[in-house]
Design a protein that fits this description.
The protein has 14 helices and 18 strands. It is α/β, with parallel strands linked by helices and about 425 residues long. Strands 1, 2, 3, 4, 5, 16, 17 and 18 form an eight-stranded mixed β-sheet that branches. Strands 6-7-8-10 form a four-stranded parallel β-sheet. Strands 12-13-14-15 form a four-stranded parallel β-sheet. Helix 3 runs parallel beside helix 4, helix 4 packs parallel to helix 5 and helix 11 packs across helix 12.
């Protein structure tokens, strides 16, 4: 693919040319062949088949016949689990945590190890077309700040959270309640980054005492901070929460009673959320981070994503590394499609499966709304985009439509096919 720069002068106006594909709404696929995306100071001005006179003479980055798509958002990932990708995939959730996860995360007490690992993670995410993120760090304050710093330097945007856990975490990864509170406040005082913001992160109900949960709920309200955690991932986990919180009829109430269940909350998994729990998520505006790869790997089950969407629950996608073995979000998108087809079979063909356009929406536009974006390549939104060069794919028996090429790219692309990445209007790859 030949990239032609008509000008290289630094200007606020930025114009990309190519085959533009985006999903402004669930299931709605908009295509503009040989079109232009115009942005001004990183914000999208509009999409045009022919450039208006006002932009004549402005620099154009011509990507030829390549596809220009919204970049991906990973709405649930465990950054310190990056070194253990692909490990322990024969174990269910709780055994996997105790065998691999806690020991790996404990290593991030070493600041040099944290720096090296997180720098590699940031660049790998960008190489795979992810520009927005909602990530767990470990419980280590300094390592969390390093993660935020490396994400910031690499060009990512989003949220990172210092994990809170003061019980049921083994000897290597447990804070005292007082330590968790103190370190969280110190972290917030130091976490001043332009593009990476803090998110409060109680790991999940079993690892946080009532006192710590109450502290985090009060802190979230006082400072208007988002929250991320886990919900109804595994049947053993659900039973454990019931033992720890006999006053709560359902898992979600163990968060809600402390003010940690609202429209600034991202809850991962929700595999076993029944109708009542899903209604509570809808009523409170909670975001569900669907992690299809992880749910299968850790034998948790298949989340009722179609039901959630039909019922008005906000659904986004997450890699959930290292429960999920794939960092690339385009692979998570196709995993979500496959999981929804399995769910359709499980429900005797009563649940519909996700289409390509719907799953891509969940991995891009839907997540963008959590960050305040409107949808797709909407006017006024920050430019988050990837350029996919599909020239190496097998030669088809006929000329494919742009829609067909887009669908094929989601299933076949690798990071080698991503020619450029834009984050918040900045070219970062």
């Amino acid at each position: 693919m030949g990239v032609v720069l008509t000008q290289r002068a630094e200007m606020a106006i930025q114009i990309l040319k190519g085959n533009i594909v985006h999903t402004p709404a669930a299931g709605k696929l908009n295509i503009l062949e040989n079109g232009h995306i115009v942005s001004d100071d990183g914000k999208i001005v509009g999409l045009f088949d022919v450039l208006p006179d006002a932009y004549k003479g402005a620099p154009v980055v011509d990507y030829g016949d390549a596809l220009i798509l919204p970049s991906f958002a990973d709405m649930h990932m465990h950054a310190p689990q990056y070194p253990m990708l692909g490990m322990g995939m024969d174990l269910p959730l709780l055994d996997w945590l105790n065998t691999y996860t806690f020991n790996t995360e404990a290593a991030f007490k070493d600041k040099d190890f944290a720096r090296e690992t997180y720098r590699a993670l940031a660049h790998e995410m960008i190489a795979n077309g992810t520009t927005r993120v909602c990530a767990f760090s470990s419980l280590h304050r300094e390592a969390t700040l390093i993660l935020m710093d490396e994400f910031e330097k690499a060009g990512l945007t989003g949220f990172v959270g210092k994990v809170n856990m003061d019980r049921n975490s083994g000897d290597v990864l447990t804070e005292t309640t007082e330590e968790s509170m103190r370190e969280t406040l110190a972290w917030l005082d130091e976490a001043h980054f332009e593009h990476i913001k803090p998110v409060l992160t109680p790991r999940f109900t079993p690892t946080c005492t009532n006192e710590l949960m109450a502290f985090l709920g009060k802190l979230a309200a006082e400072r208007d901070l988002p929250v991320q955690s886990h919900l109804s991932e595994n049947t053993s986990e659900i039973a454990w929460v019931r033992e720890l919180h006999p006053d709560c009829a359902q898992y979600w109430e163990s968060y809600a009673k402390y003010g940690l269940f609202n429209d600034k909350t991202v809850m991962a998994h929700c595999v076993h959320s029944d109708e009542r729990e899903r209604q509570a998520m809808k009523d409170n505006g909670v975001w569900v981070a669907h992690c299809p790869d992880s749910n299968v790997n850790l034998i948790s089950g298949t989340a009722p994503v179609r039901k959630m969407m039909n019922e008005g629950v906000r659904v986004v996608l997450g890699s959930d590394i290292a429960g999920g073995a794939q960092l690339a979000m385009y692979q998570v998108v196709t995993a979500a499609i496959r999981a929804s087809k399995v769910k359709r079979i499980e429900t005797n063909w009563t649940d519909e499966f996700l289409t390509v356009a719907e799953a891509f929406y969940l991995g891009t536009t839907a997540a963008g709304k959590f960050f305040g974006a409107t949808g797709g390549f909407a006017k006024g939104d920050k430019l988050h985009a990837i350029v996919v060069d599909d020239a190496r794919f097998p030669t088809p028996v006929r000329k494919l439509t742009v829609k067909e090429r887009f669908e094929r790219a989601l299933y076949m692309m690798t990071k080698a096919d991503i020619a450029a990445v834009y984050s918040d209007g900045r070219l970062i790859k």
